Amino acid sequence: MTQHPTQAVILAGGQGTRLRPYTDDRPKPMVEIPGTGVPIIGHQLAWLAAEGVTDAVVSSGHLAEVLQDWLDRTELPCRVTTVIEREPLGRGGGLKFAARALPRPDEPWFATNGDIWTRFSLREMAGFHSERDATATLALARPRIPWGAVETDEFGHVLDFIEAPPSPYLINAGVYVFSPGFTKLLPERGDHERTTFPRLARARSLAGFPLPQGSYWRAIDTAKDLTEAAKELAGNG
User: Which Gene3D superfamilies match (predicted)?
Assistant: First the structure.
């Protein structure tokens, strides 16, 4: 029987330098999507709760008190615990540090980067992870290339111009499902994407779940991403 994760980690400690001036007085996950009145982390918690998550651990660092203040005065859709990285541990170390605060260490868990705004079925992803008996599963997105592309033939004639085409490559979408044993494979500090993930890939224990067709996904890295997200939201309204 598939055990659907009911706990999650949100990595919310990044400095968000490319989002300045928005991040001068708040951490990146506290930046609001224009027009919603809700910070990115608010959207994430609502999504996780709608997907059956009852407990979330938020790993914070940069301007942690701003995030904590918002959590304290907001009616949250699930139980939220915060942990604070006193020194940067890297993404892998940060995950391990936060995972130690999960209420059910013997059960699987979700994780998401604090700057991802997306909607898709986590239950479906958990089922995919379970079917493959994976140690870790990462969601895969196919983002649009931010430039127009030029199509040519073998003789160098230009055939067509394609505005913002989908990338030919899938990328790590920053949303994960982890089996209980994954935590001990993480480094104490450093990046799991350069250590733990390659080892699991070689052992065929790492699965990739392509986001379902039509799923909304955006990483909020720059002010332009905020503007685009607001436009997309208005278009879907």
Answer: Spore Coat Polysaccharide Biosynthesis Protein SpsA, Chain A
The reported pLDDT for the residue numbered 15 is: 61
Indicate if the alpha-carbon torsion angle 8, 141, 136, 17 is positive or negative: negative
User: What is the rounded distance in angstroms from the CA atom of residue 216 to the CA atom of residue 6?
Assistant: 22
Give strand ranges (E) for the chain.
Answer: 7-12, 55-60, 79-84, 109-113, 116-119, 136-141, 149-152, 158-162, 171-178, 206-210, 216-219
Give the Cα separation of 29 and 62 in Å (integer): 10
pLDDT digits (tens, 9 = 90+) for 22-74: 556 666 788 777 777 888 889 899 999 999 999 999 988 777 788 888 888 88
Instruction: State how far the Cα of 19 lies from the Cα of 130, in Å rounded to an integer.
Output: 36
Residue 85 zone, left/alpha/beta (φ > 0; ψ -120 to 50; rest): beta
| Cα end-to-end span (Å), the chain | 38
Cβ(22)–Cβ(115) below 8 Å: no
Q: Tokens at residue 124, please?
A: 């479906």
36, 75, 61, 33 alpha-carbon torsion, rounded to 10° = 0
Helix extents (H) in 117-195? 122-131
Percent of the chain past pLDDT 70, that is, above it, reads 91
Note the pLDDT tens digit of each residue in 101-152: 999 999 999 999 888 888 899 999 999 999 999 999 999 998 888 888 999 9
Taking alpha carbons only, the member of 14, 179, 24 closest to residue 89 is: 14
- Quote the CA–CA distance of 118 and 47 in Å, as a whole number: 8
